[in-house]
Specification:
Blueprint: E1 7-13, E2 16-24, E3 65-70, E4 73-77, H1 79-83, E5 92-94, E6 97-99, E7 109-117, H2 123-136, E8 139-146, E9 149-158, E10 161-167, H3 177-180, H4 190-203, H5 215-228, H6 247-264, H7 289-294, H8 299-305
Parallel strand pairs: 1-5
Antiparallel strand pairs: 1-2, 2-7, 3-4, 6-8, 7-10, 8-9, 9-10
Helix pairs in contact: 4-6
């Protein structure tokens, strides 16, 4: 079942308009998450919204937004006043221009969304806009209001739909100069480059996301399972970086290590895991591991029991 739309409105290219819905293209809900607990009682920590001066708890309906002018002065802005900021992009994504994809600096990218027709009408107009962008090999630039903020959004075809990527404004992107100015100008010799290229060639491949595993997430699950089973937790040695004394020697050794790794590395077949699931590996108490694995419930149910 698709998640609830973050935004619904209209997509417009000049006089061509269609109703659309914007859905999140990524999810963090499958990651292991923690609650904060009172170490002494084991109870969850509850956060209360209190008045900074009186210390009394404040009901949600009495809380308004405020812009800080100085230490003790705020300008209150109500939800109704925010909704009255009449931006066309609150309900319509108006395509303003078309640009080449390679012109968009990666620093401006925020997060991706899926844009689909909303309802049974407007599919023809949506297809016209989508195929025009595809045919021209361009990215459409528009604006959309999400969470009371107007964002730039870049639209490009993806299968039968559109992928919309929110973009940052220039004032949100820091200049690299303040970070890179102190980097020393180093002359890299041809021999060093040749060795480094050799390492790159040995490691070259194709980007296949299924090959990657979130090792930290796996380690967290292993930690939780061990604690559930009452097993001792042994501290692991922290990795230490080594000082490179001879850069050429390090490059040569890297080539040798990579060759040895290729010989000894077995072909790794990616595990087939259902979309949106994460395996919890600990067997059910009192049952053999194979039997527990056969009766293992879905990830979400297991996490609730944790």
């Amino acid at each position: 079942m698709a998640p609830r739309a973050n935004w619904k409105g209209f997509l417009r290219l000049s006089l061509v308009t269609c109703p659309v819905a914007l859905y999140p293209a990524t999810s963090e809900s499958e990651k292991v998450s923690f609650n904060q607990l009172n170490r002494k009682t084991g109870h969850r920590i509850k956060y209360a919204k209190v008045d900074a001066d009186t210390g009394e708890e404040v009901d949600n309906e009495d809380i308004v937004k405020g812009y800080k002018v100085d230490t003790d002065t705020f300008i209150e802005v109500t939800k109704e006043e925010l909704e009255n900021v009449a931006l066309e992009s609150t309900r319509t994504i108006e395509i303003d221009e078309f640009v080449d994809r390679n012109e968009i600096d990666p620093r401006y990218l925020i997060r991706p969304y899926y844009l689909c027709p909303d309802g049974k009408v407007g599919h023809d107009a949506f297809a016209v806009i989508r195929e025009t962008i595809r045919e021209m090999n361009k990215v459409a630039i528009g604006r959309v209001v999400l969470t009371n903020r107007e964002h730039i959004i870049a639209l490009e075809p993806m299968d039968k739909g559109l992928m919309g990527t929110l973009l940052r404004y220039p004032y949100e992107v820091r200049s690299a100069d303040e970070y890179f100015d102190e980097i020393q100008d180093v002359k890299v010799t041809k021999d060093m480059l040749d060795l480094a290229r050799h390492i790159v060639n040995q490691k070259s491949g194709h980007f296949e996301p299924d090959k990657f595993e979130d090792q930290y997430e796996t380690a967290l699950i292993d930690l939780i399972n061990k604690k559930r089973a009452g097993k001792p937790i042994a501290a692991k040695a922290r990795p230490r970086g080594e000082n490179v004394v001879d850069l050429m020697d390090a490059l040569r050794k890297s080539i040798g290590d990579e060759k040895a790794a290729k010989v000894s590395r077995p072909a790794k077949k990616p595990r087939k895991v259902a979309s949106g699931q994460k395996e919890m590996l600990m067997p059910i108490a009192g049952k053999p591991a194979k039997e527990a694995a056969a009766k293992r419930p879905a990830a979400k149910a297991q996490r609730k029991s944790a």
